[in-house]
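Session log. Operator J.P. requested a structure for one protein chain; no other inputs attached. Running the standard single-chain path with token output.
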Amino acid sequence: MRKENSTNSINEQFLFQVCELNSAIAMIGGRWKSQIVYSISQGNNRFHLLKRELPNISEQVLGRQLKELEMHAIIVKQEIPETVPVGVEYILTNKGLDLVPILESLCNWGKTYADGKEISVCKI
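Structure written below.
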């Protein structure tokens, strides 16, 4: 947690006011968030399913990333009725569902250049 009057905090607030892209990147920034959102969209909507799908993430980090996604209203946590112990599943909100095609496009862009597409300078 950083101080509200710190230079980092002030700069972050300025960038969020300049362009909503910065705010969007902050919401999904982090090593695992985009993969968690995509994985939930594919039906891995319980903690143990996400952990199995993403074996290199620690439980602590997974829990923290899920809480941050909840805080940004990208997912909601819902108890599964009539389960003992009480089960929890994560559901994408409309905000999260709108994000999935964007993540897929970014993934395709990344694959294109990872596969060696030539990079050139374009004049605007």
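Operator note: DSSP finds six helices and two strands in the chain.
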